[in-house]
Each structure stands twice: as C-alpha cells, then as structure tokens.
Amino acid sequence: DSPAGPFEFIEVSRPNWMMARDCTLFQDDDGSAYFIYASDDNANLVICRLSEDYLKPTRILTKVFPGRYMEAPCVFKHEGVYYLIASDCTAWDPNEARSAFAHSIMGQWREFGNPCLGDGAELTYGAQSTFVLPVAGKPGAFIFMADQWRPDNLIDSRYVWLPVFFRPVIGYTAPRPFVRWHDTWDLSAFDGMDSLST
Fold first, then answer.
1. Is residue 94 a contact partner of residue 126, using CB atoms and an 8 Å limit?
2. Radius of gyration of the chain (CA)
3. Residue closest to 116 by CA, chosen among 55, 70, 162, 147
4. Going residue by residue through the chain (198 aa), what tens digit of pLDDT does each one get?
5. Which of 23, 93, 106, 112 lies at a CB distance of 3.0 to 4.6 Å from 37, suitable for a disulfide?
6. Of the candidates 115, 129, 156, 114, which has an alpha carbon nearest to the alpha carbon of residue 36?
7. Is the peptide bond between 57 and the residue preceding it cis, with omega within 30 degrees of 0?
8. Cα–Cα distance measured from residue 83 to residue 49, given in angstroms and rounded to the nearest whole number
C-alpha cells in the first residue's frame, strides 16, 4: 500500500520456465504490457506479453537477436515504431551501445548499430543503458538514461541522462535514434532537435 512498505512476499517464479536476467518493462499505447529480458545465459532477448493485470507472463512471447548476448534493454516507441537501446555483456565494464527498431514489438527487429556519437561514444560515455524516458508534454522527446557503474565503490555510481534525437538513414524504414554527449543541458534542447544532429 506504500512504497516504503511493509511488503508481503508473494512468490518466486521463472517466466515460462525460462531464465530471466537483465530486464525491463514496456507499456504500449493500447495498454498492453511486456516483460523484456535476457535469457539463455544472456544469449537471447525475450519479449513476453504480460497478462491484462500485468501480474503474470503469458505464452505470447518471442526470442529476438539470437546469439547476440544483449543486456540492459530499453524499449520505447516513437511515431508508431518500436525502438531498443541495449548493451553488450561485459560485466561492470562499459561497452559500445546497440540500437534496433521494429514495426511490431514482436519483431522482426533490425539493428541500427551504436546510437552514441562523439567522444566516448565507443564506450557509451562510460555507462550502460537503463531506460529511455518519454518527456511529458513534449511529443517525440526522449531522455536516454544510463548507469555509470563504479565497481570499486558502487555506492558512488552515477547516472548519465542525455537527449535522444532522430535522423533518417538511407536504407532503413524508420528514423534512427542518436545520443550525443552534453556536459550540461536542459529540456530546451528538445526545442531544436535538428541542431543536435550536427
């Protein structure tokens, strides 16, 4: 009844009797919700529709990116297209981010590559994806959120928040999301999205 508890234990479960590691939740425009998780020792990503009350996995699921070893999945939707930003599996060490899109959440998904630009892009600015947040009141504006792990002093780990922008790319049926490092920024960045691509 309260975020501070007290909490009551309900159950431990494995969705569809599968391994579920790094995960996220996504709620679609129609109210349906999905549990998205790394499975099979991180080899595959699973997208599983939840029950109408969001409390149980259903048998409606698909495995995507077979053998790609992705974790830290972030799923969001822009102008009817589903997007994913995720990470390779390199434990506490940062790596090059990945991105993909699909016209249906169950796929077929197609990879874009690293969404990050500029200095530090090859290591996702020392961070790992954790969520992509839609900005309330600003349609089409999203914030890329990432964890900047400090394994020697985890309590001092930090967060990276950066604006996401989109740019058409030849050969793809959806605009590609990009993120660029900013030492400082505020929500006015979304008032001139085109300028962020330069």
1. yes
2. 17
3. 162
4. 999 999 999 999 899 999 999 999 999 999 999 999 999 999 999 999 999 999 999 999 999 999 999 999 999 999 999 999 999 999 999 999 999 999 999 999 999 999 999 999 999 999 999 999 999 999 999 999 999 999 999 999 999 999 999 999 999 999 999 999 999 999 999 996 544 443
5. 23
6. 129
7. no
8. 17
d(CA 81, CA 58): 23
The Cα 164–Cα 144 span in angstroms is 6
Residues comprising the chain, all counted: 198
Nearest to 89 by CA among 154, 45, 26: 45
Tell me the sheet residues that pair with 100. 84, 111
CA atoms of 10 and 13, how far apart (whole Å): 10
Model-wide pTM > 0.90: yes
